[in-house]
Design a protein that fits this description.
It is built from 8 helices and 51 strands. By secondary structure, it is mainly β. Strands 9, 30, 31, 32, 45, 50 and 51 form a 7-stranded mixed beta sheet that branches. A 5-stranded antiparallel beta sheet has the order 4-3-2-1-8, with no helix packed on it. A 4-stranded antiparallel beta sheet has the order 10-11-12-13, with no helix packed on it. The protein folds into 3 domains: about 100 residues, Arc Repressor Mutant, subunit A, CATH 1.10.10; about 150 residues, Neuraminidase (6 Propeller); about 300 residues, Methylamine Dehydrogenase, Chain H (7 Propeller). Helix 1 packs across helix 3 and helix 5 crosses helix 7. The N and C termini lie far apart (about 65 Å).
Length: about 725
């Protein structure tokens, strides 16, 4: 019997079934990965001789370039499954500088006679009948179980009307307790701030009640409907204010308002939640991180603040609270992605509903403790056990939702947004230049992560064909040459690859793509072939090209050690350069980020170390914020850079750091020069009206005179109403 055709074999005392993908060890059958069996079959086919690491890579990863470490891991996994010991091997022997050799005794099954074969065939047919009967019974049982489970009860909603049609975004929808009024924020006439407006369902009229020159956002009603609370802010101040709404709506714009509390300048806003007369929950920012905060109010006269309590173990970037039952829905960001959770504020019990890589937009309870509405790429109803049903598909996306407490009418914002790429050429690196900004990419797609080559002649970027701001479909890498009008497609990405950064090789021939799972992929601009080169490492960090472009150096962690690795492009192999012991803290990601920011300026951030930074560094933005805040602080355009750096990822090059500052809705491009140690305002590059949950960035050539950046424009949303027909 040819060994390549063997279905079963005994390796020492271990029975191997290649068809069933199982090992029989210690009187039990154990499932085995297909790759391990493929490796074992390769060793069997070369029995008596060593198999090289290159042979193993060619067989196990035919169309993929992998690191040398992947072979070691595959051998280790197979040894573990066979209960083999590397130090005293009985199955697989390591042959130094050559590869691996199978040294176990092999016993192949004898060829069966015709009678035996017919008996086995008849037995197999009977087995099929028996298995089919069992499967049928299981199927019936499972169907009955599924039918007995409580299903998600989706009410029927039909489109009723569009409520607004004004330029710019409208958001922060909030119904009054009795459902007559819908308060929201909308763009002012010149689109440089947000005004507060109210729709009166009784008169079918919209009233602008706050238009002061400040931005008034996120209105919330008191439980008795007599007060409105909201954020009022400008580029240098932020406060929470409260106003009386007991008089006729036509007079609300004249109502006096009062200061309640201060808030952090520059950060994004979330809805507030006024649960009862004395209790208000809101998202506050502390150390550049969101935190859930409870305000206790006095209600004698107008509402005033008694005390403030931070709930430090909840860091919501989106949330909703049911006012009757104190049930909290919230989203937090972690290293795994975005975590949608449920919590009882009374008992503090919490549970995870789902985790995904895309952000959430728009969340609202439908039935407390049972189901809730989610927006973004669709309007859908979701249960706490993770089941969901789509109720409405928008033309673009849905960023906000609210539910009328009496009629159950749904109000949601719906609209479109463009994210395009622009380039600009500078004559010098001096203050306040007249610059010409030219569009680089098509408005038909969402284009992000523009990355310039060192000489400024090539721009690579990521392009999404998408229905909404994070319904990612058809992800592609494109390349634009400076002297050519049209961009060229470099690579189509599989759906499980979500790009986080791009790094050009020094010679501009290769592009390194880092994804959300911390894997590295290589794209050659001539072959246009995407190859996964570095994966299955823990916490890949500090990725850099060698000066000649032949190697990629990166760090990774293994248990309590930080390892420095080098990937050789010619040999397509990885080797360990050094290993350092480190202390792995048990604190969460946010605490680690804060700790890094505190020590970074002393331990890491010299000018020479700053020049080595790129977006692959885990704490890239924190390093830059700390460095900039410690140099020429009297020239900084704002007191707190963090909100702007979280919005626009900065760029480090040999001469300095380009960064974007958001002041009000205006975006300013700044340069910190390493040599002169000063901050220079280069130019204004447009407006930014509302956060769209995408990391924008800027990139520059090595001389700093050629720049590309991503820009949000054409942000338009209207308020639509969905009428509940029946349950």
């Amino acid at each position: 019997m040819p060994q390549s055709q063997v279905d079963k074999v005994k390796v020492n005392e271990v029975e191997v079934d290649f068809i069933a993908l199982k090992f029989f060890i210690d009187q039990k059958w154990h499932d085995v990965e297909a790759r391990q069996l493929k490796l074992l079959k390769l060793l069997i086919e070369n029995y008596g001789q060593a198999v090289s690491r290159n042979q193993i890579m060619d067989v196990l990863w035919q169309d993929t370039i992998v690191s040398d470490n992947s072979v070691s891991q595959a051998i280790t996994q197979l040894r573990k499954s066979l209960h083999d010991d590397k130090e005293t091997p009985r199955f697989i022997k390591t042959v130094p500088r050559v590869g691996y050799q199978l040294i176990a005794e092999l016993v192949f099954p004898e060829p069966a006679s015709d009678n035996v074969g017919q008996f086995k065939k008849n037995k197999f047919n009977l087995s099929l009948v028996a298995i089919a009967s069992v499967l049928l019974g299981i199927g019936i049982t499972f169907s009955l179980f599924e039918l007995s489970k409580p299903s998600l009860q989706v009410p029927e909603y039909t489109y009723e009307s569009r409520l607004t049609s004004t330029p710019g975004p409208e958001n922060f929808l909030r119904y009054s307790p009795k459902g007559r009024y819908l308060a929201f924020s909308q763009s002012s006439n010149n689109r440089d701030q947000m005004d507060m407006a109210v729709f009166d369902a009784q008169t079918q009229a919209v009233h602008v009640i706050k238009s002061t020159g400040y931005s008034e956002e996120a209105p919330e009603w008191s439980p008795d409907g007599k007060w409105l609370i909201y954020y009022r802010h400008d580029p240098i101040s932020c406060e929470i204010r409260v106003m009386s709404v007991v008089n006729p709506i036509e007079t609300w714009r004249l109502s006096p308002d009062f200061h309640l509390s201060d808030c952090q300048v520059g950060f994004s806003r979330q809805k507030m939640h006024w649960l009862n007369d004395n209790t208000l929950y809101l998202q506050r920012w502390q150390n550049n991180l969101p935190i859930l905060t409870k305000l206790t109010l006095a209600t004698e006269g107008y509402p005033s603040l008694i005390k403030q309590d931070d709930i430090s173990n909840i860091q919501p970037i989106l949330m909703d609270i049911d006012k009757e039952t104190n049930q909290l829905l919230f989203v937090e960001q972690s290293s795994q992605g975005y975590v949608l959770q449920h919590m009882d504020l009374v008992s503090s019990t919490r549970s995870v509903i789902e985790i995904r890589e895309q952000e959430y937009w728009g969340i609202k309870w439908h039935e407390s403790g049972e189901s809730f509405w989610l927006g973004n790429e669709s309007l859908r109803l979701m249960s706490l056990d993770g089941n969901s049903e789509v109720v409405h598909l928008p033309i673009g996306f849905i960023p906000d939702i609210d539910l009328n407490p009496l009629t159950k009418q749904l109000a949601h914002a719906e609209g479109l947004v463009n994210v395009n790429l622009y380039n600009l050429q500078l004559k010098s690196l001096n203050n306040h230049q007249q610059v010409v900004i030219k569009q680089l990419s098509s408005s038909a797609r969402t284009d992000v992560l523009p990355t310039l080559s060192k000489d400024g002649r090539q721009t690579a970027f990521v392009s999404y064909q998408r229905r909404s701001t994070d319904g990612l479909k058809h992800v592609e890498i494109w390349l634009k040459y400076k002297d050519k009008k049209a961009a060229n497609l470099l690579a189509n990405l599989p759906e499980d690859i979500h790009p986080k950064y791009l790094l050009w090789s020094p010679n501009g021939e290769n592009l390194l793509l880092g994804d959300s799972r911390q894997n590295l992929h290589l794209i050659n601009i001539y072959s246009k072939h995407l190859v996964a080169i570095i994966y299955d490492y823990n916490n890949i960090d500090e990725v850099n090209w060698s000066s000649d472009g032949r190697f990629i150096v990166f760090s990774a962690t293994n248990d309590d050690s930080k390892q420095l690795w080098q990937y050789d492009l010619q040999l397509a192999s990885t080797k360990l350069l050094n290993e350092n012991k480190l202390h792995v803290s048990s604190v969460n990601d946010s605490q680690q980020e804060n700790n890094v920011r505190k020590v970074a300026i002393n331990d890491v951030l010299s000018v020479e170390n700053m020049k080595k930074l790129n977006p692959s560094y885990h704490h890239y933005i924190s390093y830059i914020e700390t460095f900039l805040s410690a140099h020429a602080t009297d020239q900084l355009p704002v007191d707190n850079l963090a909100p702007s750096l979280l919005l626009y990822r900065p760029h480090v090059f040999d001469l300095g750091i380009y960064y974007v500052v958001k002041q009000g809705h205006q975006l300013g491009l700044y340069l910190f020069k390493f040599a002169e140690q000063d901050h220079v305002h280069i130019a204004n590059i447009g407006r930014y009206e509302q956060d769209i949950n995408l990391m924008l960035n800027i990139s520059a050539s090595n001389d700093g005179k050629h720049l590309v950046f991503s820009k949000v424009e054409g942000f338009e949303t209207d308020i639509l109403l969905q009428r509940k027909s029946k349950d």
